[in-house]
Specification:
Order of helices and strands: EHEHEHEHHEHHEEEH
Structural class: alpha/beta
Helix content: 25-40%
Strand content: 15-25%
Mean pLDDT: 90
Shape: globular
Number of helices: 8
Largest sheet: 6 strands, parallel
Number of strands: 8
Low-confidence stretches: none
Radius of gyration: 15 Å
């Protein structure tokens, strides 16, 4: 894993806090890590921890970087792209190719010649909605690997399927892909 380039894309889910530990674990494995976050992700976590752990700014805007085609450069730079967590909204935007922000722009710029891992995390009612299920099926058909969420206590206080896997488990999945 040493010197592998991992792009961690964080979307707006309460599970976004787990991305901080994932970045830390990847850096301990001597991976190069860059983080893309949606505006909604940054409502759940502050970028300072991700920046300190990754050694890079948290990237949010396709147009604020000096690189003109930043979304394409990031997608090409990465050996593995991880969307952790993937909210229902993000899954929908990925499925329709709505490249309105850096996370979705990187997805559309991706050629699926390298692993693209998606970790949905949301309330079980949302996860079981036909639109969400269909979005995941389409993304998988295109080449994204949808890693099923776990069952357990959810942020809303109910028990059910929808928990994001723990960062250590995701690290093992990434290792297997490399």
């Amino acid at each position: 894993m040493s010197n592998s380039n991992i792009l961690v894309c964080v979307s707006g889910s309460i599970a976004a806090y787990k991305s901080v530990e994932l970045v830390s674990l990847l850096r301990k494995e001597e991976c190069n890590v860059k983080v893309v976050a949606t505006e909604n992700a940054l409502k759940f976590i502050a970028p300072a921890a991700l920046e300190a752990l990754s050694g890079h700014p948290v990237y949010t805007d396709m147009f604020s970087q000096s690189e003109k085609i930043f979304h394409i450069n990031l997608a090409e730079w990465a050996d593995v792209i991880v969307v952790y967590p993937a909210s229902a909204s993000t899954l929908a935007r990925l499925r329709i190719g709505l490249a309105e922000d850096l996370l979705t722009g990187c997805f559309v710029a991706n050629n699926f010649r390298k692993p693209y891992l998606v970790f949905p995390a949301m309330n079980s009612n949302m996860l079981e909605h036909p639109a969400v299920e269909e979005n995941m099926e389409v993304l998988a058909k295109w080449g994204a690997e949808i890693v099923a969420p776990q069952s357990g206590l959810l942020a809303c206080g109910t028990q059910g399927k929808g928990r994001a896997p723990e960062p250590k488990e995701i690290l093992e999945i990434i290792k297997a892909k490399l």
